[in-house]
Amino acid sequence: MSNVKVCSLGSGSKGNATLIQFDQSIILVDSGFSSKELESRLTTLELRPADINAILVTHEHSDHFNGVPVFSNKFNIPVWMSPGTSLHPRADKIRSLNLINIHDSFELAGIQILPVAVPHDSREACQFVFHNDNYRIGILTDLGHVTQHVISCFAECDALLLEFNHDITMLMQGNYPASLKARVGGNLGHLNNQQALNFLHAINKSRLKLLAAMHLSEENNCPELVKNIIQQAELEKTTRVILADQQYGFEWVRIE
User: Fold this and answer.
1) 220, part of any domain
2) Is residue 253 part of a domain?
3) Is the four-CA dihedral 236, 237, 239, 240 of positive or negative sign?
4) Domain span including residue 111
5) What is the DSSP string of 96-112?
6) Beta partners for residue 163, in sequence order
7) Is residue 254 in a domain?
8) Ranges for the Metallo-beta-lactamase domain (predicted)?
9) Helices and strands (H and E) in the chain: how many
């Protein structure tokens, strides 16, 4: 039995944090939650901060970055991010800060990591594919559109955590000011449901064991719309589908 697992500690505009485990190594991707809140959410999984080997940061927006400096320093956990992300003024507070080239693969705690540059309204955003000889887990959120580079990097995943941020009609008819609608729905914003579906049609889904819908807007999307559109993705019958939410994320899922 494999010991390759993934879980979400919460996903949405109020805070994001994801755990990736390969064997005994655990990597935390982002933390938009305060250090205290993150500790509380780890406790529900019977995890301690000391169980985390490293923290990766996708970009500097507060719902991904907010809790990282305090949590990292409090528990002496090293942090990796792009040079652009490190320009955030609070990045200077991180005592164990390491920079990555988002165009080169690297290894952390025995896990192979492929950074993937994505179009988003931040300084140097990236997402990640984690892999060993047998399994590939992809995290793909916070991008305004799907590039060919993104498709090629995420084309062969066993588990995929994919953004379904908004329904375009709900966004356009909703209460956001025009400037925010333009930002969220633009080429440097967030994936809408149809874009996520188009991406799924563009990749090889034959080995996909888990699809997790991530970063759902609480105002401009709803779970039923996401479930309905995923039904159009022609997934294998063996593919497990999960919708992550803001409060609870989703519990550990073993990939095998």
Assistant:
1) yes
2) no
3) positive
4) 4-248
5) SEEE--TTS-EEETTEE
6) 214
7) no
8) 14-190
9) 8, 14
Spatial contact of 250 and 212, defined as CB atoms under 8 Å apart:
yes
Is the whole-model pTM more than 0.85? yes
Cβ atoms 10, 16 nearer than 8 A: yes
- DSSP element (H, E) containing 156: none
Q: Please enumerate in sequence order all residues whose Cβ is within 8 A of that of 100, keeping only pairs 6 or more positions apart, or say none.
A: 80, 81, 82, 106, 115
- Rounded to an integer, what distance in angstroms lies between the CA atom of residue 232 and that of residue 27? 32
Cα-based angle 40, 42, 45 (whole degrees, multiple of 5): 120
CATH of the domain at 138: 3.60.15.10
Contact indicator for 48, 65 with CB cutoff of 8 Å: no
Per-residue pLDDT of the chain (256 residues; tens, 9 = 90+): 679 999 999 999 999 999 999 999 999 999 999 999 999 999 999 999 999 999 999 999 999 999 999 999 999 999 999 999 999 999 999 999 999 999 999 999 999 999 999 999 999 999 999 999 999 999 999 999 999 999 999 999 999 999 999 999 999 999 999 999 999 999 999 999 999 999 999 999 999 999 999 999 999 999 999 999 999 999 999 999 999 999 999 999 999 9
Angstrom distance (rounded) from CA 8 to CA 78? 20
Cα–Cα distance, 47 to 185 (Å, whole number): 37
Contact between residue 159 and residue 255 where contact means Cβ atoms under 8 Å apart: yes
- How far the first Cα of the chain sits from its last, in Å, is 7
Q: What DSSP state is assigned to residue 161?
A: E
Give the burial string for 10-22 (b: 16+ CB within 10 Å, else e): bbbbebbbbbbbb
H helices of 114-221, in order, are 148-153, 168-173, 178-185, 193-202
Residue 256 in domain: no
